[in-house]
Design a protein that fits this description.
Blueprint: H1 7-23, E1 28-30, H2 58-70, E2 73-83, E3 86-94, E4 100-105, E5 130-133, E6 136-140, H3 149-156, E7 162-164, E8 170-171, H4 176-198, E9 201-204, E10 208-211, E11 225-228, E12 232-234, E13 240-243, H5 258-267, H6 270-273
Parallel strand pairs: 1-2, 6-7, 7-9
Antiparallel strand pairs: 2-3, 3-4, 5-6, 8-11, 9-12, 10-11, 12-13
Length: 288
């Protein structure tokens, strides 16, 4: 998706994409990170907390109605207002009946130039989770979580066949020429590695377009971000089976083949050979 300054317009656009995807046979549909707004974390502004809403709330109600109408499962990334002064970057799972089947709160929160998420979001306190649905079991993490193999492993260990990573990531204008290609390659590689290491499918929807964090028509200062799109789906062997461009809105659809997943795990038996007796130290911040 690309996102406009108007949240209601973005929600309507998302609903249209959902209908389109369902019409093409999609059963589990995942939207990009924080799709209702332009990426507002490019600046620290207390007034932008007004963009948040409770879960369940207005967005989950609208999206749930469409999930029920189309008999699909939706994975939607929202700015959650949990309590006064307490906010999360949260994914809501809406089942085929339109009900809220669960939530995941983003665990790893970045704080980098133009990604000032620590100002807005409290780290998740629900841990890593998988969700059983009418179409199988999957897990979802969010954007910055995608760089951490621990989150992928702990989600896959709960029986997830697919790891979804709703994402908002792009290039800084001053860095694209020198680092852009290698940054995108690293992003793609780490997530393909999660698929290989865990023998699961990985699906990564990212936004497209240039944004300065323009919210409700109020232009923000700064150079902005060029979101690099490149959404993709990788199979358990790490092969990319569907991939989007860098600059267009597109819908990617792929089939999750559980027989292929079983075959890959039999031939690459990483799960069998894990030394679970030797990993206790992974819970330490640093080892000296």
């Amino acid at each position: 998706m690309s996102c406009t300054p108007e949240p209601e317009q973005n929600l309507e656009r998302a609903l249209a994409h959902i209908r389109d995807a369902a019409g093409r046979g999609a059963e589990i549909i995942c939207l990009p990170e924080l799709f209702q707004t332009q990426y507002f974390c490019q600046r620290e502004d207390i007034a932008l907390f007004d963009l948040a809403e409770p879960i369940p709330g207005p967005a989950t109600k609208r999206l749930g109605e469409v999930a029920r109408e189309l008999s699909v499962t939706l994975i939607v990334s929202l700015f959650e207002r949990r309590a006064p002064g307490l906010y999360h970057n949260t994914v809501a799972i809406l089942d085929t009946g339109g009900k809220l089947a669960g939530i995941y709160r983003k665990m790893h929160i970045p704080d980098d130039p133009l990604y000032y998420e620590k100002f807005y979001f409290t780290p998740g306190d629900l841990g890593f989770k998988s969700f059983a649905t009418d179409f199988g079991r999957f897990g979802t993490l969010v954007c910055w979580d995608q760089w951490y193999p621990e989150g992928a492993r702990l989600t896959a260990l709960q029986g997830a066949s697919v790891l979804f990573y709703p994402t908002a990531i792009g290039w800084h204008p001053d860095e694209k020429a020198q680092y852009g290609e290698s940054q995108y390659d690293a992003w793609r590689t780490i997530q393909r590695a999660h698929a290989i290491a865990n023998g699961v499918y990985v699906a990564v929807p990212n936004r497209v377009g240039f944004e300065t964090g323009n919210i409700r028509g109020e232009e923000a200062p700064g150079k902005g971000l060029e979101f690099w799109g490149g959404s993709f789906i990788a199979d358990p062997f790490g092969q990319v089976i569907a991939e989007a461009s860098h600059d267009k809105q597109e819908i990617l659809i792929a089939e999750v083949d559980l027989h292929h997943m079983e075959d890959v795990r039999r031939n690459w038996p990483f799960w069998r050979d894990r030394r679970v007796d030797a990993y206790a130290a992974i819970t330490q911040r640093f080892l000296t």
